[in-house]
Amino acid sequence: MPTETSLEKKYKKGIIDQTATYIKSRLEGEGSGHDWWHVYRVWKNAVQIAQQENADLFLVELSALLHDIADWKFHDGNDEVGPMMARAWLENLSVDEAVIAHVCQIIKEVSFKGAGVITKMQTKEGKVVQDADRLDAIGAVGIARTFAYGGSKGREMYNPEIKPIMHLSFDEYKNSKSPTLNHFYEKLLLLKDLMNTSTARKMAEHRHQIMVDFLSEFFREWEGKV
Ligand code: NI
After folding, report:
1. How far is CA 40 from CA 31, 120, 132, 135, 169, in A?
2. Above 70 in pLDDT, residue 73?
3. Which of 88, 186, 196, 207 could in theory staple to 138 by disulfide, Cβ–Cβ 3.0 to 4.6 A?
4. For the segment 4-30, what is each residue's pLDDT rounded down to a tens digit?
5. Ion ligand 1, residue ranges at CB < 5 A
């Protein structure tokens, strides 16, 4: 006879697996760095952090998997679409209302909206998912994603005549046309100090250094100094 706990485990694994398959089919092949493999990496980062921080794994995994179901960057800045789609999916699987409400709240709060815009996560699970998402924006993968995203928006790779700006509002950040390299100064180099959990802060150190090294090499090569 299976115990209640193993039944519950099996139920949760079923929901997670179905959600992963659904998101994979929705986002596969997306070319701007918000594809299935981004979600996959965030999911893996989130599990690592959740285990260290004793967060609720089921909530964390579901939120990580659903966090980019409809990213605001691709829906004219509407950040209501993601939570709505996540809710429809989870209701379809008859997931508990308390779980659905928590997951939707996390998805709504998780996006980075500009250097001067504070997005404070309200729960431990939200903090874990936000950290996991931010970790995937930095380091070697972060560098690759940043250029992929800039390319998809038709932005210049770098233009020494355009200086980085710290966006003070969500609208300013959303409508920014600045070259991709500026994004390192407007967002990516700030992320290390914005991590919510000490586990993610440790993971961010190495990834941060990779970007610092990349930038100094980039500028040297730009002026023919290497
Ligand atoms: Ni994301």
Report:
1. 15, 24, 11, 13, 30
2. no
3. 207
4. 689 999 999 999 999 999 999 988 877
5. 68, 133
Q: Could you tell me the residue ranges of all domains in the chain?
A: 6-222
Quote the ligand 1 centre to 164 CA distance (angstroms).
23
| 143/88 Cα distance (integer angstroms) | 34
5 Cα: distance to centroid of ligand 1 (angstroms): 31
Q: Which two tokens stand for residue 187?
A: 């967002």
**Annotation: CATH topology of 6-222:** Hypothetical protein af1432 (1.10.3210)
Distance 4 CA to ligand 1 centre (A): 34
Angstrom distance (rounded) from CA 148 to CA 145? 5
pLDDT in tens, 167-195: 656 566 566 678 999 999 988 999 999 99
When pLDDT is averaged across residues 48-53 and rounded to a whole number, the result is: 97
Measured distance CA(153)–CA(128) in Å, rounded: 29
Q: Which amino acid is at 218?
A: F
Using alpha carbons, select from 118, 99, 111, 124 the residue that is nearest to residue 49: 124
Say how many residues make up the chain. 226
What stretches of the chain show up as alpha helix (H) in DSSP? 4-27, 36-53, 57-66, 81-92, 97-109, 124-135, 139-152, 170-174, 182-186, 198-222
Instruction: Dump pLDDT digits (tens) for 148-171.
Output: 889 888 999 999 998 877 665 656
